[in-house]
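The instructor's notes for this session suggest beginning with a concrete chain rather than abstract definitions. Hand out the sequence below and ask the class to guess, before any prediction is shown, which regions might be ordered.
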Amino acid sequence: MSEEINYQNNPLHGLNLKSMLIEIVDHYGFEILHAYLYIHSFKTNPSVDSSVKFLKKTKWAREKVEAFYLYKFKNLPKVSSDQFELPPRDRIIPEGQVAGAPCELTLEDAERVREKRESKANEYDKLAGRSSADKDCDSTKPSSQSNDKPWLKPAPKSAWKPQPNASTEATVKGSGVKHLDPWASSRNKLKS
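After discussion, reveal the predicted structure:
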C-alpha cells in the first residue's frame, strides 16, 4: 500500500531558499528576523546573499527560518505533534488550511518573547537542580554543585618546565641546528 504523499499544499513546496528569504526580508527586515530567530548572520552581515550562503550550510538555521516562514509569515496554524519532529519542508499541510496574512511583529514583542523563554528556561533549570552558576562556564567561582564538572574549575598552575638534555637534542644533517624533538631526528635518518 504505497500512499502518495501530497506536499502541494505546503507553501515551501517548490520555493527556493533565496526567494523565501527575500520575501521575509522585504516584509520584516533583518532586524526583526534577528530579534525573533537569533541567527547571527542577520545582524553582523545583513545581506540576502550572505544569509543564503549561511543557511545552505547550516541545517538548524535553515529549518528555523523555514518554520518562521510557515508560522509567522504565512500565518499557518501550528502543526500536530506527529508532524512537529519533521523538518518544515517535509510537513504535510492539510487541504483545508490556507496561508493567511503575515503576523505583525515588533521589536518590543520580540523582547517579551525572549524574556518569557528565559524565565521558562530558568524554571526548567531549577526543577532539574541546576543553578545559573552552572550555565556560566566563565565563572571563576565554582558552585557547590559543579564538583562533577571539573571543566568549570580553574586549572592549577604547574611549576614543571621541560629542560633540554643531551639525549633529546639532535643535530639535523649538515645544518648545525639543534632540535628538542627526538622523533624529528629519527624521521630525518629515515629520509637519508
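Then share the key points. The chain has a mean pLDDT of 77. The longest strand covers residues 170-171.
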